[in-house]
Amino acid sequence: MRRRWLVVLLAAMLCLALFAPLAQAQDPVTLDFVDNYVVVRQDGTLRVTYTLTFTELEASGRQLFRAVGQFPERHTIVSAAGSGPNGPFGIKTEPADVANHYRLVFDITTQRGSQYDLTIVYTVNESVFEPTKMDGKELKAIGWAPFVWSLPITRQEISFVLPLALPEGVTEAEQVTDAIVNELGVVANNVNDFDRWVYFATPDEASGQSFLSIRVREDNIAAMGGRIPQFFLPGESITVERGTPIPFDEPQPTPAPSQPVNLLDWLRNPLVMGLAIIITIFVLAVIIRASRRRKAKPTYMPPEIEVETFQTEGVVPDLSAIETAFYLGNSTKTLALIVLSLEQKGIVDIVNRNPLQMQIIDKDVAAGRREKLPVYEQALLAALLPDGSIDGEQIQAILDAVAKVVQPKLWNADPQATRETYRRRIEESWQEYEREYRGRPAPQHMPNYMPWIILRESPAPTVSSAGPRQPGPLAQMAGEAVAPLETLANDLTTSIERVAGNTIDRIEQGVGRLFGDEGADIAGCHSACHSACHSACVHDACHSACVHDACHSACHSIRFVSLLNGIGTIISSIRSSKSQNPSSSYR
């Protein structure tokens, strides 16, 4: 009996020894409440008042927070202060080991079980406005986010005071209706993601006006979590964009008027005379030491800078087919889609395929009125030479114009999720095309998904070791549909590649490195394609002399097969749609 009780006692002691560390491994503090009060100025600068309420859980208390942030790149700390059960206390801000983070040093030691408030006021000294477009309207988003903590937050509130004046007499929250918000041009995107989203008025005594304000609340935020309110301001009256450095005009104290100084009395001061003698000796010593010849010191190499990004998991931007081609690192397809877009809109006519020559047929565009076109279409039209060909020296400018449109959409995008989303969309568009083609091989109008088909990478067909075989019914149908178009597609693609030359290779390698695609080898694929097909046979004779599957195994298993087939199909569909349905549009 005693032995049984001894075993039970030892088991209990073992359990206490195992679970005691778990009981002690609790959070050091609880983050009870976070308040962000953000004043948005007309020029895009911000003044942020950040207040954190926390409860101390450790018995020894604390005298600092090791890292608070991340602050924007260009910012200024205006003030930092704290308060607790014993009243206010001072806080000193010091740069932390992590970039754009600060260490908060208290001049007190916190006590277990007590609650404290920390308030940091800082300014953002550059425009945070991000240009975007929705339903044809120019809008501006606010590129700012609250701090992220490695501990859960019980409640967080964010208030934005916007540079949009409310109608006269609107000063109370209940007076700010949805009709007024819509009239001001504000578009909210994720209202239902928050526990509370309200509009209210913030009066300004200096101007006598009230400004539209938004307050959102989110409860029980997980560690490293928290949502960002997505709303957009009208872009007509906002001319600055993200990254524009703007000095923040904080009020400076007025210096007191100084009394005139008697120079002779000042020089007679013994302290001044002694200091002057010391400075003179020091300067002479420096001059003598500098005049001596020294051995050259090794050049200092500064350390690499760790780049911080705003990438958010799961965020996928809205990209067109042209922008997707650029994002996936295929500049040839990017240029081809721009050309096809201009032809589908009736702006240009392709008068010669190889070499590629175009003629502007839209009178307004020919007269120079091109402001309604996307910037990359304007850049391509500007690159046309008098003979209608594309100036190879301007390829860089055309792709730079595409980059200026794509980059603002990707500031917080998830690269992996973005690639998977658009590759899935390309594959779904191809499957939809196959279904429609089997039921109606001759389309009456241009499908909206057709540009996405050009972006698809076609898999290489296989050939039996026993030799060529006759294609099946589906393969024969596909061959009959593609064969009349491949010469046209090949001429346009070859012409674009010849004009672009090494510029395409250099830019695609740069885009590949930028988005993590180190394995793209466009030059090798290009050489293989030409050596397998274009240098070995006449293209028309190829189709008449061999089985279609075997031809594809020799030529179209190269990376550009999807581009050759896709461009041929799209050009044929464009010309068919112009004759049968002139009102169709390219999307």
Give structural notes.
- There is one protein chain.
- The chain is α+β, with helices and mostly antiparallel strands.
- The chain contains 17 helices and 16 strands.
- The chain has helices spanning 2-24, 178-183, 263-267, 270-291, 321-327, 331-344, 363-366, 375-382, 395-406, 415-439, 450-454, 473-500, 502-514, 522-534, 539-545, 548-556, 561-580; strands spanning 29-40, 46-56, 64-69, 75-84, 87-95, 101-106, 115-124, 129-134, 137-142, 153-165, 187-188, 196-204, 209-221, 231-234, 348-353, 356-360.
- The strands form three sheets. A ten-stranded mixed β-sheet has the order 3-6-5-4-7-2-1-10-13-12, with no helix packed on it. The chain has a four-stranded antiparallel β-sheet with strand order 8-9-14-11, with no helix packed on it.
- A hairpin with a 5-residue loop joins strand 5 (87-95) and strand 6.
- Helix 5 packs across helix 9 (395-406) and helix 6 (331-344) packs parallel to helix 17 (561-580).
- Mean pLDDT is 75; it is low at 5-12, 14-24, 248-261, 462-468, 477-486, 513-568 and 581-587.
Number of strands: 16
Number of domains: 2
Through-space gap between termini: 86 Å
Number of helices: 17
Instruction: Record the strand order, biggest sheet.
Output: 3-6-5-4-7-2-1-10-13-12
Share in β-strands: 15-25%
Question: Biggest β-sheet, characterized?
Answer: 10 strands, mixed
Label the structural class.
Answer: alpha+beta
Proportion of residues in helical segments: 25-40%
| Averaged pLDDT | 75
